[in-house]
Amino acid sequence: MSTDTVSTVPASAPAPAHTPSPSGGEHRREPRRDSRREPRRDRRPEATEDGPAMLEKVVFVNRCAKVVKGGRRFSFAALVVVGDMKGSIGIGYGKANEVPDAIKKSTENAKKHMISVKLKGDTIPHDVLGQYDGGKVLLKPASPGTGLIAGGGVRAVLEAAGIKNILTKSMGSSNHIAVVHATLDALTQLRLASDYTALRA
């Protein structure tokens, strides 16, 4: 009878001895694994693009469906604004069967049609109204600290041009192509005081 009682004691003793050791090891390793994964997720594409100083903004991507005998065929058109944020901007429009190809074609088209805009620091020299088809965009200069008060295609064009303080109002069509070109038309009308003095001389 005494042997039975002695044999049951060692069987129950090792059970609690093994349970805390693996649990403590697992809890210590979990935070280390999480800390290693965090820097891998935080990837900044801007750091890899040190060479090109051009700012590319996709304003709108349109999908067109063509009904054929076998079903539907989709194609995409992209509107892109490219600028160096120093007064040089361009607008491109490209079409392709895939979205990346359409963006690539529109970006190349924008870089081929770059124009220079006359700015006064971080804002524009005077009020101006731009028109293109049904689009009408009004631009007004603003004091430092106002910010870029614009949205949609107007904001994309002004950011690419390097304007940081301005007031805008879109008073015409809401079509993206019309608004972007109306904004570009307004920027091309800008003149500095030195330009007017040169004309009078």
What topology does this entry show?
Elements: H1 2-12, H2 14-18, H3 20-41, H4 45-48, E1 55-68, E2 71-83, E3 88-96, H5 99-112, E4 115-116, E5 128-132, E6 135-141, E7 148-149, H6 152-161, E8 166-170, H7 176-188, H8 193-200
Parallel strand pairs: 7-8
Antiparallel strand pairs: 1-2, 2-3, 3-4, 5-6, 6-8
Helix pairs in contact: 6-7
- What is the rounded Rg? 31 Å
Tally of extended strands?
8
Q: Any low-confidence stretches, pLDDT <50, length ≥5?
A: 1-19, 25-52
The share of residues in helices is: 40-55%
Q: What string gives the helices and strands in order? A: HHHHEEEHEEEEHEHH
| CATH architecture term of the largest domain | 2-Layer Sandwich
Tell me, rounded to a whole number, the average pLDDT: 80
